[in-house]
Design goal:
It contains 10 helices and 11 strands. The protein has helices at about 5-25, 45-60, 75-85, 105-110, 125-130, 140-150, 170-180, 195-200, 245, 260-280; strands spanning about 5, 35-40, 60-70, 90-95, 160-165, 185, 205, 225, 230, 240, 255. The mean pLDDT is about 100. The structure holds guanine.
Length: about 280
């Protein structure tokens, strides 16, 4: 049976270390501050934003919350972002995605100052990630890399298969694995015979959002399986993309959902906020 990789415990360890950094920043007169914007009533987004707020409180990071109604116009949202860009108190700005369909996500991402873009979604920061030279880590992929590091899994030269090609996870995940000298294959909704690729993976990362997409027959014996997805079943239970109960019998390491990658995404967000605040230390 696989080792269950405890992202929750690792996130607590990382947040404790960050708390010390926040205390030091405060002693030198810098008060880290994260602004979080949510538009509309997406239930999953509300939970994520609440968890981000809770982590800020735990670490002593000030959080400003903008919970805007569904009808908010793009112009209004861009106006708020403009104010936050100019507000010197604010170190990080995060606008929770997805946005209502009448708002153009690209315009919103492009409007956030790259210096305060703690999600690392702005094209300038994406470019930095592409060339492996960055200040802000892409939150979820960097969380995955921390989990791999904690369990001493070296990806250099390994066959890593990323399922999903989103700008938030799949693409930056590919870049971080490449930076660590993995051989990376990206699969997506148009991939023919997905199993033929996943069966070759020493490290399999799934970030699709489809329960039971990855079944035991698709996984190589002793593979490392990282489940990035968070799906809610009709029963209300949370699950990832991976058929956890069966795959854990075949893998050498596996992340659970919940308690795997999710908490690490937030820990990285906190790290990026602290990194941004550190620029203010004279
Ligand atoms: N929606 C899903 N994941 C994320 C994330 O990491 N950041 C933001 N801003 N929105 C998301």
């Amino acid at each position: 049976m696989a080792v269950i990789m405890d992202g929750k415990a690792l996130s607590i360890k990382l947040k404790n270390a960050l708390k010390n950094e926040v205390d030091e920043l405060k002693n030198s007169g810098v008060n880290p501050c994260l602004a979080v914007i949510i538009v509309g009533n997406n239930p999953a987004s509300k939970i994520y934003v609440n968890n981000k707020k809770k982590s800020c409180e735990e670490l002593g990071i000030k959080s400003l919350e903008y919970a805007l109604p569904e009808e908010t116009t793009e112009e209004e949202l861009l106006g708020i972002i403009d104010e936050l860009n100019k507000n010197e108190e604010v170190d990080g700005i995060l606008c929770q995605l997805p946005l209502p369909s009448h708002i153009c996500e690209k315009n919103v991402i492009n409007a956030i100052s790259p210096e305060k873009d703690v999600d690392a979604f702005h094209p300038e920061n994406v470019g930095h990630i592409m060339i492996g030279d960055y200040t802000f880590l892409p939150c979820t992929p960097a969380g995955v890399m921390e989990i791999l590091k904690e369990y001493e899994i070296d990806v250099a030269g390994k066959n890593c298969v990323v399922v999903g090609r989103s700008n938030i996870v799949g693409k930056p995940m590919t870049m971080l694995l490449l930076k660590e000298n993995a051989t990376v294959t990206v699969c997506h909704s148009r991939t023919q015979d997905l199993a033929s690729f996943t069966k070759q993976a020493d490290v399999l990362v799934s970030a699709v959002g489809k329960p039971n997409l990855i079944t035991a027959d698709m996984v190589k014996e002793n593979a490392v399986v990282i489940d990035v997805a968070i799906n809610r079943l009709d029963s209300g239970k949370l699950c990832g993309d991976v058929d956890f109960e069966n795959v854990k019998e075949k893998a050498s390491f596996i992340t659970p959902v919940p308690g795997g990658v999710g908490p690490m995404t937030i820990a990285t967000l906190m790290k990026n906020t602290v990194t941004s605040a550190k620029k203010k230390v004279k």
